[in-house]
Every structure is written in C-alpha cells, then in structure tokens.
Amino acid sequence: MKSVDELLDAARQAQKIFSGYTQQQIDDVCLSVGWEVYNDANAATLAKLAVEETGYGNFESKFVKHKRKIGGVLHDIQGVKTVGCIERNEETGISKYAKPVGVVCAILPATNPTATAGGKAISILKGGNAVIFKPSSRAKECTTKAIELMRDGLKRVGAPVDLIQVLERSEREDTADLMLKADLIVATGSGPLVKAAYSSGTPAYGVGAGNAVAIVAEDADIPDAVQKIHSSKTFDYATSCSSENAIIVVDAVYDQTIAAFKEMNVHVCSAPEADALKQHMWKLNKKGKMALNPDVIAQSSLVIAKGAGISVPEDVTMLLVESDEDPRTDQFADEKISPVLVAYRAKDFDTAVDILKILTSRVGPGHSCGIHTFKRDYIERLGNEMQTSRVTVRQPMAAANGGHPSNRMPSTATLGCGTWGGNITTENVHFKHFLNITWVNEPVEPWTFTDEEMWGAFWNKYEK
C-alpha cells in the first residue's frame, strides 16, 4: 500500500512524460481509458460491484449511468484542442496556449463511485494531467476495480500507468496530506469533504448540496412532465444530487398531475403515512442534530415504506407526499437522496416562483431548478431571478443537469453551485477546468477615446 508521497512521486514522473504527448496521443489515451469503463462487459461489472459494496442504488441505473456519463464526456472532448495553441485572434493579437495543471486529487462519492471515476479520469487526462483518486471508504473495492481497468487502457497505448492511481489508505491524515500536496483538487462528495478540500490550501473545485426543485406550470404537457420527473426521481433510487426533491404544481393542473403519478405506481401518502415516513426518514444523529436516516439513502421506495411501517404494493416505484406546510420549515423540503418526492400546490405561477425561491435558498442554494412549461416569459423569469446555477426546461433533471444528448450541458458528475452554494464556479466541472491557459498578447492598433465619446451621453442625462 503506497504512501501519499510515493503516489505523488509516481504521478509526477508519469505526468512529466505525458506532458510531452501530442494532441493525437492524448486523444488516443482518452479513448483507450474511456473504453475500459464504457464497454458493456466492464460497465456491467462495475455497476454490479458498486451496488453490492455500497448498498446504494440499483444495477440497471448504474449501468446506464456508465454509458451516459462516460459516453457524454468522450463526446464532449472529441476534436477539442488541449495541447499547444488552442485559440488565436488576429484582431486582438491574443493567442491562448493550453498547459496541464499537474497532479489532480479527485475525491469520489459513495453514491456514484465508478462512473464518476471514469468521467473524471477522461476529463483530467484530456488536459495532459495525472490523477490520484480518493474513493469513499464505502466504495473502495469497486473504485479500485474501475482504476485497474483504466490502467489497462493506459497500457494498451503505451502510456504511463501511474497517470491514474488510487489512495488506498483510508486515514483522514492521508487524505489531508494528498489534498495539501496535489496541484488541484476536485471534490465530489459530502459537505465536510468539500469543505476540507477548500481549506487545504490547494486550489479546489467543489460541489454544493443538491436540492433540485421543479415547477409544473399550467401549460405543461402533464403526461410528459410526470414521466420525466418520475424517471429522474426513480433513477438509481435518487442517488443523483440532481434528482428532483420537490415539485411545485400550479393549482390548475395539480389534481391532474397527482393522478398521472398514481398511474405510474406512485404511492401518494395519506397524512398519517406522511407523518410516519417523516419519523423514519429523519433521526437524531450522534451530534444530537436531526439528520437524514442512512437507512433510507438510495434505497427502493418499497424498502423505505416498510421501514416506515407503511403498507404499499410490491410494485410501488416512488413515494409522494402532498405538503401544505410552510416550505420554510417543512422537513420534507430537505434533500432526501431517495425515491421520495414532496409536492406543493401553488395557486398560480407567481406563487410557484415564491415557493421555489424559498426551497432553493433554504436547502441546496445555487444548485438547480427546473420547469415544465412552453411559455418563454416563464423560462426567462427563472433565468433572470433564480439564484441557481442551472435552470432545466422540460427535462428529467437527474439526467439533464449533468449533460445529456438532449441538451448541450457539459457532461460531468461535479456540478458547481457558485457563491450561493459556497463554490468557486457555477459551471459543470469538465475538461476545461483541468487546464492552465497562457495568454500571449502581441501589439495591435492602440484603442483611444475622447471625453465626449466616453461621457457625452452621460453628462447630457445627468446635467439637465
């Protein structure tokens, strides 16, 4: 079991060789590594291992996640220049040259341990970098298997295998040491780990807490909206931070929406059942604080219902709670990381926006919101007013926020939440975030202006 210093030394030696690769060589490396975590046989192996080891989610979804996330990253980097001069503007005299950032420490979540590793590795390698993964203690074996497969991909094209490594030691001191000594950190995981990354003294990209909330407007295609929300909320038992936590339905279509969910084997909880579910889902933790019960995280709705003592059919797909409580204090407004959805009724769109702002500012600020509407003014209002990094329109948020063939969001499992969520970026963290860019500036015709050109209109307005 290698020490942090041994891992870093091997990574730096490998990255030094890799930094001399041509664009074609780097692209071949990415394709070779990507294949190892994309092909059906290996994706199935990793999906099965991830579920068995962590107990989170389900095999079918994790398999699809491998195909979608790895395929999406490979699609995004296809034909993109990350070596040498990547941009030249004759008018401004500015040229941009891409350089590696060096050795990246990548912290992985237990909820998505293998597809995240694959997507991150490809994005990091695209910039000519090396990566050392820190797996969740709950997902060491499946993450290590993913890394072994990707190292096989490096061998195929004759690249240094130590471009991809794993920190096998699980002590906090080793993780802190790796974060301190790496050149860059990308942290996808729990809040404490992200905070530790930001506090390490090393430049870091982190994520904020998720709390995706969607509005169903009065003009929505209800069957389509419900199908998309349902698919998103049930995918991998809601391990994704982008899985809808709540929906806000305008009164005119509320009853129709709830009826459509029932047709998809969704159990709508009665008031006593909702209370029992709440008691089961949130418990006092060791610190005496009310927190999400670990026994419900990424479990099936059947398992959660049984734990709460709620009788549901064996084919139940999701639990839905209709809430008339104040969203400022409603426990069900919290992130649930499970196929449990809360629905709020809004008398009109203005009220729906008010509730949306309360929910997204209270839990998971900066992350995302969604809307099912065809009204341009509704979409633009959310774009202008919401303090979220994403507004997803007429799509399943778990799939769409992190990039999907149906949109052009960069493919990633690391979603920045901006200053609202305590992050440095609002972007989906992808290959461009693992590049240093040198700006070369050459002399051009100087710009000039007169006082009249700069202030003429201004003084005419304010000196009247």
Topology at a glance:
Elements: H1 4-18, H2 23-38, H3 40-54, H4 59-77, E1 84-89, E2 94-100, E3 103-107, H5 115-126, E4 130-134, H6 140-156, E5 164-166, H7 172-181, E6 184-187, H8 191-198, E7 204-206, E8 213-216, H9 222-234, E9 246-250, H10 251-262, E10 266-268, H11 271-281, E11 282-284, E12 290-292, H12 301-308, E13 318-323, E14 340-346, H13 349-362, E15 369-372, H14 376-385, E16 391-393, H15 397-400, E17 435-441, H16 451-462
Parallel strand pairs: 3-4, 3-6, 4-5, 6-7, 8-9, 8-15, 9-14, 10-13, 13-14, 15-16
Antiparallel strand pairs: 1-2, 2-17, 11-12
Helix pairs in contact: 2-4, 2-5, 2-6, 3-4, 3-6, 4-5, 5-6, 9-10, 11-12
Can you describe what's shown?
The chain is α/β, with parallel strands linked by helices and 464 residues long. 42% of the residues lie in helices and 17% in strands. The strands form 4 sheets. Strands 10-13-14-9-8-15-16 form a 7-stranded parallel beta sheet, with helices on both faces. A 5-stranded parallel beta sheet has the order 5-4-3-6-7, sandwiched between helices. A 3-stranded antiparallel beta sheet has the order 1-2-17, with no helix packed on it. The chain is globular, with a radius of gyration of 24 Å. The relative contact order is 0.13. The model has no long low-confidence stretch (mean pLDDT 96).
